[in-house]
Write a structure and sequence with these properties.
This protein has 20 helices and 23 strands. The protein is an alpha/beta fold. The chain has a 7-stranded parallel beta sheet, sandwiched between helices. A 6-stranded mixed beta sheet has the order 1-3-2-6-4-5, with helices on both faces. A 4-stranded parallel beta sheet has the order 21-22-20-23, with helices on both faces.
Length: about 650
């Protein structure tokens, strides 16, 4: 029924014109039939008691049926079986109207059908269930529905093929061992390689000489770091003997190092076993400056001087002039290129000139909203007018929300709050929506996939409410750093006809180093002294923890990005255990930033990070989107990030 309802809605959308709602012309491939007149035992009704019904099949063919108003849906199905081919092909079919299945006893006259609407014919095939050959109790029979013979035969055939393949593997006594050996041979980076007397007999369990030689050259006859075993949990590091490496291999030096010096230090120290498989140097870039736009007021110029800005980068000046002139614009420049000024300057300029105008900032994360709030509050100190800036998200106390709705002129929120709180109660935000001058959407590249689809629909609702109800047409400003097609993306996101693209980056950039780190191989005995030797790679969690501690020890402010909350906590725990040995005074200088903390704890961590009190943070993507943390020397990524944005 749900499928039929979806098809019906789609069909109705196609048969209406967007302006008048009149039925559109039928598809050329559809077959039109002459109206059918049902015959039966009922007396011939009067002309005014007859109704003409439009019936359409899923393949697009349609017909018209004329029945008496007192006739039933059963009579309609009988008439369709007489001359409508889709009904003749499938004797068992259902009729749906507006997503609801029609009852056979329902009278035609009781159906609420207006001009242009039609009934959908959906074929129905009943599957024949084969009884189970084994008798089961009634309780089990009701809980386990019978399986068709085709499915059972296919499952048995597939299982037999698997067992035949497993039986062909030599030296395998049972299926579990065979599967383990087969997995090891097909995935050498994650499997175990045996080195015993029978290794030459089984190609699936043989360990290549190259890997054995590499392990011996690295001096890893036995593993000192815990391996990753999918069948067991990672053992606790404080219980794992030999977790913290010996003093000869662990760095105890705390001499400050620059990024280039750290690369050489890692090559000669922690990465001496060949973990660094690639180094890419990204060259520096000189700045391209531009004077402040002449359209800026004297108050705005003083506000910029108060934060140390006397001139702008070329892309900032271009974006500001476009926004002030009322053009939609997307700024696609590199990270830390000053994109915030591209929208803060025109927004504050407009709010200071027009005391009724308002602006809406949409950020994907709460951390980014807090960061931008600090920047705006610092800039607006030079203005004599009162510009109330407030954050409206899930952390906002309920007692403050009423004041924000009545007084805020620059509202900072996120797509979820727009959907849940703002748009359903838009009359409470009438003052803001009727005077909305700018809509700023930062980190536009994050709105992709399902989240991007939801946000696109929310923005369409926002535009429709602003234009149709409050007569307001705000200017959009988008910012992104890692989108390959920024202009096309934002035009589809907000359904805009034209957006100006600014991507000539005028900001300076120092040289950067990109290192690809692969955990080293280690050899380990399993099953005691008589057991076989296996090779494993060190845990990537442990490797990131050692790198994290190295950065903190040598004075480099660092963020270690992890994909899950649990990984963040593990990296923090492991790094603190390493620092207990190499630099005990630095243990409390690192922490975790992730979702799940209360608002007060998150604000405290953010403040300590922005003020430089923390040397490092293990964080999820809650901290990865456009946060201005001042000075960051290094970022670590546990696992493959998956996109340039991370």
């Amino acid at each position: 029924c749900a499928t039929a309802a979806i098809v019906l809605l789609a069909a109705r959308a196609k048969t209406r014109r967007p302006d008048t709602g009149a039925p559109s012309k039928p598809h050329p491939s559809s077959l039109q039939h002459k109206p059918l007149r049902a015959a039966g035992s009922r007396s011939a009704p009067m002309a005014q008691e007859e109704r003409e019904l439009q019936v359409r099949a899923l393949d697009g063919r349609s017909t018209a049926v004329t029945l008496a108003a007192a006739a039933s849906v059963r009579d309609l199905k009988a008439a369709l079986r007489g001359s409508f081919p889709p009904a003749q092909i499938s004797n068992s079919f259902h009729l749906f109207l507006k997503g609801a299945k029609l009852r056979l006893e329902a009278e035609i006259g009781s159906l609420a059908i207006v001009k242009g609407e039609f009934i959908v014919l959906v074929p129905f095939t009943r599957k024949s269930a084969q009884p189970s050959p084994v008798a089961m109790p009634a309780e089990e029979q009701s809980a386990n529905p019978p399986i068709s013979q085709e499915v059972a035969t296919g499952a048995n055939s597939a299982w037999q093929d698997i067992m035949n393949d497993l039986s062909s593997i030599p030296n395998s006594t049972n299926a579990d061992d065979a599967l383990k050996d087969l997995y090891s041979s097909s995935t050498p980076c994650s499997g175990s390689y045996a080195e015993d007397g029978s290794a030459g007999k089984s190609p699936s369990t043989g360990c290549s000489r190259k890997r054995r030689k590499l392990c011996k050259e690295n001096g890893n006859g036995s593993s000192d770091t815990p391996g990753v075993d999918g069948a067991s949990k990672q053992p606790s590091m404080n219980k794992k003997s030999g977790f913290v490496r010996s003093a000869a291999s662990s760095c105890h030096d705390k001499h400050p190092l620059g990024p280039a010096e750290m690369v050489e230090h890692l090559k000669n120290g922690l990465g001496k076993e060949g973990q660094i498989v690639h180094i890419e140097e990204i060259p520096c870039r000189r700045a391209s400056y531009s004077e402040l736009p002449r359209d800026l007021s004297e108050v705005m110029r003083k506000a910029l001087e108060s934060i140390g800005i006397s001139r702008l980068y070329s892309h900032q000046s271009e974006a500001i002039q476009s926004s002030i002139s009322g053009k939609h614009v997307v700024v696609a420049t590199s990270t830390s290129s000053g994109k915030s000024l591209c929208y803060n300057i025109p927004v504050l300029e407009s709010l200071s000139q027009d005391l009724m105008s308002c602006a809406l900032y949409i950020f994907p994360t709460k951390a980014l909203a807090q960061d931008q709030l600090r920047t705006i509050v610092e800039m607006k100190k030079a203005f004599h007018t009162d510009i109330n800036v407030s954050i409206y998200d899930g952390d906002t106390p309920r007692e403050d929300r009423l004041w924000i709705r009545d007084n805020a002129r620059l509202l900072i929120t996120n797509p979820d709050m727009l959907h849940v709180s703002v748009l359903p109660c838009h009359s409470q935000f009438q003052r803001i929506l009727s005077n909305l001058r700018y809509i700023v959407i930062d980190e536009a590249h994050s709105y992709k996939g399902v989240f991007g689809c939801h946000t696109a629909l929310i923005l369409r609702r926002l535009k429709r409410i602003c234009s149709n109800i409050y007569g307001c047409h705000p200017t959009f400003t988008f910012c992104t750093a890692t989108s390959a097609n920024p202009r096309e993306h934002v035009m589809e996101l907000a359904k805009l006809d034209n957006v100006g693209l600014i991507q000539n980056d005028g900001s300076p950039c120092g040289s950067k180093y990109f290192l690809l780190w692969n955990p080293p191989l280690h050899m380990k005995k399993e099953g005691g002294s008589q057991g076989s030797s296996v090779t494993r790679r060190s845990s990537p969690i442990v490797e990131v923890s050692y790198l994290f501690s190295e950065m903190v020890q040598h004075g480099l402010r660092c963020i270690a990005f992890c994909k899950t909350r649990k990984l963040c906590e593990l990296v923090l725990s492991y790094t603190r255990e390493i620092l207990e040995v190499t630099g005990k005074e630095l243990v409390d200088s690192i922490c975790v930033y992730r979702a799940g903390y209360i608002a007060e704890d998150r604000r405290k961590i953010e403040a300590d990070l922005f003020e430089g009190k923390l040397c490092g943070v293990a964080a999820t993507n809650a901290l990865e989107l456009g946060i201005d943390v001042g000075h960051i020397d290094a970022t670590l990524h546990l696992g493959f990030p998956g996109s340039v944005a991370r």
